[in-house]
Amino acid sequence: MLTVAAAAPAHTVADAPPAYAAGSRAFVADQADALGYDREALAALMADARYQQDIIDAMNRPYEAKPWRDYRRLFLTPERIDGGVAFLRQHADLLRQVEAAYGVPPAIVTAIIGIETNYGGTLGSHRVLDALSTLGFAYPRRADFFSKELGEFLLLAREEQVDPRRAKGSYAGAVGMPQFIPSSYRAYAVDFDDDGRRDLWDSPADVLGSVGNYLAQHGWRRGAPVAAPALLSTGPPADVPVVEKRPARPQLTLAQLAAAGVVPDTAVLAAAPAEDSRAALLALDGEDTEYWLGFDNFYAITRYNHSNLYAMAVYQLSREIAAGAARAGGGHAAG
Asked: Is the CB of residue 122 less than 8 Å from the CB of residue 43?
């Protein structure tokens, strides 16, 4: 049985609702044995967890609720692009190794790190213990999910020698440079530097390798396109589904789309995709409605964050980073 050690730092917090304390007690009673924790030690750990009202507030105003025209401006900035070019050049050798292992281009991996934590500059200020307990015990809409993630975090803490009282992350409990939730950390993180640990806070090799592995495990296709603007012959055809913010797995082949009057603008692609490539038709609320075709690799990015806005921001940022790196004398196309 794992005995939890060390005292937590003091926190100033809002008054917790009754559900928080009740949820904490139930979690200890239900999960101590399953997680391999001494019951008294787990109770002491959870007594040190703190309800945080600002976490609930943040969950109620997600970035992905914004229209695309506003969401895009958050990430497609000169500073984020320049930072991505510098990050890509700094880690060029590692990124080439990740591409060789998993097929994911350096600019895509870089863009994900850029959007998640501004290239490691913003790893999150909330204790993971506070974030996951707050959401697991006092956020009914997704309480089951986050209470399970709390259990995953406690298992992760044991497996990767992480102090559960001190680890910090986002308001939603995501951790490290790539902002993996604990279950994803346990399932998809890799020890890319072969030092015996999977360290997503301080090991660039593990961080970049884990992003590549995550996308590969979620259907990334080496050398295949991500997205392209859609050219519509007469507007959106009635017999082609149009998706907006919520992702949908590509179902129609390019041949089927072409028969309905929808074709990709191949000027942005390194090579014309095969006619049996599948794509989903997207409509994004930019300054005007933007129509795009999202391929299987676009859908793979949405498995990282279940939002078409997120995947499009990754794609467009990656292209800007790749172009900037090429101008500076290095880098790979984003796809």
From this structure: no
Q: Is 274 exposed, middle or buried (0-12, 13-18, 19+ CB in 10 A)?
A: exposed
The residue type found at 68 is W
Model confidence at 335: pLDDT above 80? no
Strands 278-285 and 242-243, how do they pair? Answer: parallel
CA quadruple 207, 209, 215, 218: dihedral positive or negative? Answer: negative
Distance (Å, whole) CA 222 – CA 332: 13
Q: Dihedral of CA 4/161/125/151: which sign?
A: negative
* pTM assigned to the model: 0.92
Catalytic residue among 116, 149, 152, 320: 116
Asked if 201 and 179 touch (Cβ cutoff 8 Å), the reply is no
Confidence of residue 332 (pLDDT cuts 50, 70, 90): low
11-64 pLDDT per residue, tens: 334 589 999 999 999 999 999 999 999 999 999 999 999 999 999 999 988 777
Here the tokens at position 157 are 């803490």
Backbone φ and ψ for 157, nearest 5 degrees, come out as: -60, -40
Locate the DSSP E strands across 37-184: 126-127, 168-169
Distance (Å, whole) CA 11 – CA 179: 23
Residue 47, number of CB atoms within 10 A of its CB: 12
40 catalytic residue (yes or no): no
